[in-house]
Write a structure and sequence with these properties.
This protein is mainly beta. The protein has one helix at 3-15, and strands at 20-25, 28-33, 66-72, 78-86, 91-94, 110-111, 116-122, 125-130, 135-140, 147-148, 153-158.
């Protein structure tokens, strides 16, 4: 379909009572809608000219849900003071900031609130997941570069 045919279709829709026209022709598809405004996604729009000042960006650290759990230790005793730190979003789990970097935490590490535990990549954004609790990392439940679900346990921490 060439540009002249598209222009004719647009004029046809404009001059008629047709609200919407959709056409498919040999792998080509077009939809013409009348009377509806289109809002562009501001995240992908670029400003027409450079901004005079840098625009500050907030680096939000999503809160990882924490749930109490019972865990059996290596010696066989049940720990009542264990917590699960869960994923706050769907994404891909990374233990380190880059492939050649050291992991943020290892099993046996003692953590404090605010300590970065991992990254969950969601929609091409790297979200640092911080600890909300103090304790000792007993187990890391997810392998590096594995997909994770919302509220999936990532770490087991002893309070």
């Amino acid at each position: 379909m060439d540009l002249n045919n598209i222009r004719r279709l647009v004029k046809l829709v404009e001059k008629s009572d047709i609200e919407e026209l959709e056409l498919q022709e040999e792998g080509f598809q077009i939809r013409i809608t009348k009377g509806k405004s289109v809002v562009a996604n501001p995240a992908v729009m670029m400003p027409p000219h450079p901004l005079p000042h840098p625009v500050p960006t907030a680096t939000a650290h999503p809160e990882a849900p924490v749930h109490e759990t019972k865990v059996e230790s290596d010696s066989g005793e049940v720990l009542d003071n264990a917590l699960e730190i869960c994923s706050p979003m769907v994404g891909t789990f990374y233990r380190a900031p880059s492939p050649d970097a050291e992991p943020y935490v290892r099993e046996g590490d003692v953590i404090q609130p605010g300590k970065v535990l991992c990254i969950v990549e969601a929609m091409k954004l790297m979200n640092e997941i911080e600890s909300e609790v103090s304790g000792k990392i007993l187990k890391i439940l997810v392998e590096n570069a594995q997909p994770v679900e919302y509220n999936q346990p990532l770490f087991i921490v002893e309070k």
